[in-house]
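If you are new to this repository, start here. Below is one unmodified record pulled from the training split, so you can see the exact layout before writing a loader.
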Amino acid sequence: MRPGTPRSPDVVGVRCDAHTHLHDPRFAGAGLDISLWLRARGGEYACAVNATEEADWDDVTRLAPEPGVYPAYGLHPWKVSARKPGWERRLRARLETDLRAGVGETGLDRWIEGHDLDDQLRVFRAHMEIAAELNRPLTVHCLRAWGAMRECLAAGPLPQCGFLLHAYGGPTEMLSEFVEMGAYFSFSTYFTDPRRHRVRDTFARVPPERLLLETDAPAMPPPRRLNENPLEDAEDGSLLNHPANLSLALESLSGIRGESVAVLEERTAANFFRWWNGPAGVCCG
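And here is the target side for that same chain:
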């Protein structure tokens, strides 16, 4: 087996976080040693660790050998204007070095001030082409651009292993179209606030084989009153999201769907590894 080739794990008792930024230096500033935290969980935790710009690709690579880490490389739509020529070639090189590696975070965002949607589309299409060419998991960000996102995804190409619409906040009516394209949908710790009725109703309707969980740690923390794992940014005191809050997302989604935590834990783990192990043709059920 080539180095970096994913193996099919036993999903029982494994909690899977489909979208994180655990390489973020703010964890260390807040007193959390992410490497030690990951090692303490052994085979009970797995996560995708997503880069957002070329400047943090090396940080993701350094974290990649830790247990349960599945690295991903890409350019977030907020970062596309800072890209350097040749980034596509360098992205392919990262993916060819590690057969576990995915593509992203990438996508479209009309919420950010001063956005250039046409430029975002050019970069997003390049990510799609690379992910499809190498059949790697694709992680997609979308805010206030769902019409353009649907058109772009429908035009393809897309990886056979599928793609994640992370922290899905799009229309419920688009679920079936995205499912037909190969989408997974991750329920975020940010959605645990009961006041987020619309998105919670949407996740009650996601097909079970397409459900995933995420924290987006250190971003998108849950409401303070629900947060049992508080972390604060050492510089400005803002609330950071702890990866341990994945349990809160699991419990909240369990209530929304009327399923036991154990059943949902096993299903979302199976979905995660089915999606992520696609590059090597390894499926865990």
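Two things worth knowing about this chain: Residues 15-280 form a domain with the TIM Barrel fold (CATH 3.20.20.140). Residues 105 and 139 are 5 Å apart (CA to CA).
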